[in-house]
Amino acid sequence: MTLRLAPWVLALGIALAAPVRAADPPPVTAPVLGGDRATIRQMHEADQTAIQMGKLARDKGSARAARDLGRVLIADGSRAEQELDKFLRTRGSDLSALGSATSADADHELLATKVGAEFDRAFALQAIHDAQTVLDRLSSARIETADDDLRAIYDDLTKLASAHKRAAEAVVAAQSSRGAERRVFSPLRPRDGFTAMAPVGNAAGAALRGVDEG
After folding, report:
1. Is 214 a domain residue?
2. pLDDT, tens digit, for every residue of 2-34?
3. Would 55 be classed as within a structural domain?
């Protein structure tokens, strides 16, 4: 009697007899070392500082432009942190491995003591300084790095820092413009029931005040 095996039994036997192929090893990713790691840490610290400054401006800013810039710093700083963490995870690390990002200095701590228009100006000037510091670091970092993915992130961070600097400069310019208006125009002394605003040093204004400007 001849034993006949079903085709599927034969196929199973062949599959079981075939050598087991080892699974492909996971792709090896180079860790972030040297200058790149130092730059990422600096960007991490800059992000955290920007977020804290943004919260301060959101809560203490007297001008809407200052408060709006504060909200932008919070949102952009948080997004930049996510991008850096996502990149580090592809290299077998994460932002927490960089340690604490607390880098408070006297200038940033002094900012919290100011109020009103003085705060707005100090905040905007500090934001300009911080953005320029980031731009200077990224300018050299994007040339030094050999990692194309990281260079792309540096380019994105450069765009953000440039936008922050322009926005902060606009806050300073707007405040300076308002200050110039206050210096150029001052209330005249009421005379005969008349109160007006006239340019300081204007001959007509001097005449109304009874002042001879020579």
Report:
1. no
2. 556 555 444 545 554 555 555 544 454 677 878
3. yes
pLDDT at 74: 98
Identify the domain containing residue 161 by its residue range.
34-185
The CA distances from residue 165 to 11, 49, 77, 128, 160, in Å, are: 69, 15, 14, 5, 9
pLDDT digit string (tens) for 63-75? Answer: 999 999 999 999 9
Q: Count structural domains, the chain.
A: 1
Is residue 85 pLDDT above 70, yes or no?
yes
